[in-house]
Specification:
Blueprint: H1 2-11, H2 17-62, H3 67-70, H4 82-90, H5 94-108, H6 114-123, E1 132-136, H7 181-191, H8 204-208, E2 214-216, E3 225-227, H9 232-239, H10 250-263, H11 266-271, E4 276-278, E5 297-300, E6 317-318, E7 341-346, H12 356-365, E8 371-374, H13 382-391, E9 393-399, H14 408-414, E10 418-422, E11 441-442, H15 445-448, H16 453-459, H17 463-476, H18 491-513
Helix pairs in contact: 2-5, 9-10
Bound molecules: 2-acetamido-2-deoxy-beta-D-glucopyranose (NAG).
2-acetamido-2-deoxy-beta-D-glucopyranose is lined by residues 80-83, 219, 221-222.
Length: 523
């Protein structure tokens, strides 16, 4: 338009020079304004379009769709899931992408620099980065959190909101806690599907730092292991007594239901349960169902009450008891000279077969000045006394009772009291990665029963030698802590790692068995 005006003006007789100058100025201003508005328009378009398209491109590049962390698709944390990956090309149109992804995208990539982006992707845990991909059965609440008073809100496949650690259902305290392994594993694996950085409480920082050993997948064909979230130990603790009107107690009822549930599952039938993970940590838990489900990998405290066909070290994982005394963590604890008691033992003395060595040792040690060896269940105000006793003793005795293992070993470890293990059949947690001889003293039962043998051995351990073991105890204590949110190297992560190692040999078996499935012959 401006141009047309200029041309028309030129046709007319020449105006005076001052008019021509004014006209030239007006034309210059008009052209400048036009250029400026064009630039502004283009620029604003770039600003709107850039974040989405840039992010879409990046995500296509690093093959981890943003949908993994948006919560839109938290049922498919795998990132491999075709549903979420097909939606990535669809978002290459910036406008449709912005509509679909705007909320989460802005939260995740607000002008994030390269460094920040890299840090974030490192803290994200998905099926690609985890060592173990875990499928969790959506058992009804009565098998797990229902026992903790959580009602499940009537939905069949519901799980508690685990974003706020303090709001998660609590396990009953006291001695029940010793076998609470299934509870900690379940909380941890549920939280693995949360986007990093979520959480409503002050604990969300810790959830973001969740180690990436195991991750939950909802696509069964991606799973390395099928986790059965039955709180078997609590079921034994709480529901073993027959209530009025019941023909079988609730513990038995739940086990029967569980067997029925699993036997109907395609995933169980496929490999006969071999790639399933069940946690009957209490030696008496799942007494009725353990044989029927024995193909599965168990997480146990020991093999004392199992026949070797049902449970053995080849397929099963030994997990620590949760300690009940106060833990020193990796912090300072009384050193050699601040521990006046040489050897400490407190527990029941008269036990069934296998625990005879306790009685023998009691006779040998009861009159020694610097030995604390007494009866007493932990029940009567015992936890506080045990905490005090173990933290003022150099050595803590772990003597086979009616089962080869006991919580005392783990109470001793977190008290930094060097354990003396007198239990020939004991199996120790994570022994393939931990060398217990660095922080424990092992004594054969036959030797311990000889007069004078044990005291001579313990008095012969020098201050330096003892201190070396004590330093090592400080280092390993964290491997025996159960907590939620879980932290790197704690008992929860150690168990997942142990399961992952064991699954390798299970998978070797399964793959070998599958060699000829194409040609039809069954082995
Ligand atoms: C699960 O994963 C497999 C293998 O990657 C894939 O073929 C299948 O379509 C997936 N199933 C669902 C429901 O996403």
């Amino acid at each position: 338009m401006v141009v047309v005006v200029v041309v028309e003006r030129k046709m007319q007789p020449l105006p005076p020079p001052e008019h021509r100058r004014a006209l030239r100025f007006v034309v210059f201003m008009a052209v400048s304004l036009l250029a400026l508005s064009c630039w502004a328009l283009v620029n604003s378009r770039i600003n709107v379009a850039m974040p989405y398209s840039a992010f879409v491109m990046r995500d296509v590049v690093d093959k981890t769709p943003a949908l993994t962390v948006t919560g839109v698709e938290d049922r498919h944390p795998a990132g491999l899931d075709p549903a979420s990956s097909t939606s990535v090309p669809a978002t290459s149109d910036a406008t449709s992408g912005s509509v679909k992804l705007s909320g989460p995208v802005i939260r995740r990539e607000p002008l994030a620099g390269e460094r920040e982006r890299r840090e974030r992707s490192e803290t994200r845990c998905d099926a690609d980065s985890a060592a173990l991909r875990v499928y969790v059965y959506d058992l009804p609440a009565e098998f797990h959190f229902g026992m903790l008073g959580w009602d499940g809100k009537g939905k069949p496949a519901a799980w508690p909101d685990v974003r706020d650690a303090r709001a998660a259902p609590h396990y009953p305290g006291g001695l029940n806690l010793q076998h609470s392994v299934a509870y900690w594993l379940t909380l941890d694996i549920l939280s693995s599907a949360l986007p990093p950085g979520t959480g409503t409480g002050s604990d969300d920082v810790v959830i973001r730092d969740r180690p990436c050993v195991a991750v939950r997948v909802t696509n069964a064909s991606l799973a390395d292991v099928f986790f059965v979230p039955f709180f078997a130990s609590l079921s034994y603790n709480r529901h073993s007594k027959l209530r009025r009107g019941e023909k079988v107690n609730r513990n038995r009822f739940l086990q029967a239901e569980l067997v029925r549930y699993l036997m109907r599952k395609e995933e169980w039938r496929r490999w006969g349960g071999k790639n399933h993970l069940i946690v009957p940590h209490h030696p008496n838990s799942m007494m009725e169902a353990r044989k029927k489900l024995s193909a599965a990998m168990f997480v146990l405290s020991d093999f004392g009450r199992y026949s070797p066909h049902v449970a053995n070290l080849k397929k099963d994982v030994i997990a620590p008891y949760m300690h009940v005394v106060r833990s020193f963590g990796d912090g300072d604890s009384p050193a050699f000279d601040q521990r006046p008691i040489l050897a400490y033992f407190q527990g029941a003395i008269h036990r069934k077969a296998g625990g005879k060595v306790r009685q023998k040792l009691y006779q040998l040690l009861k009159d020694e000045r610097d030995v604390h060896f007494t009866y007493g269940s932990v029940r009567q105000n015992g936890i506080r006394r045990a905490t005090a006793g173990m933290s003022t003793s150099k050595f803590c005795l772990n003597i086979a009772g009616d089962t080869p293992s006991s919580n005392r070993l783990f109470d001793a470890i977190v008290s930094h009291c060097v354990p003396v293990i007198i239990s020939d059949d004991i199996e120790l947690p994570f022994e393939d990665v931990l060398d217990y001889s660095e922080f424990c003293v092992f004594v054969r039962s036959a030797d311990a029963a000889k007069r004078g043998f044990l005291l001579r051995l313990l008095r012969g351990i020098s201050r330096d030698e003892w201190t070396k073991m004590w330093m090592r105890l400080k280092k390993v204590t964290r491997h025996f802590e159960y907590q939620y949110p879980s932290r790197s190297g704690d008992a929860v992560q150690m168990i997942w790692s142990a399961v992952a190692r064991k699954m390798h040999s299970v998978q070797l078996q399964l793959h070998k068995r599958g060699r000829f499935q194409r040609t039809g012959s069954e082995s």
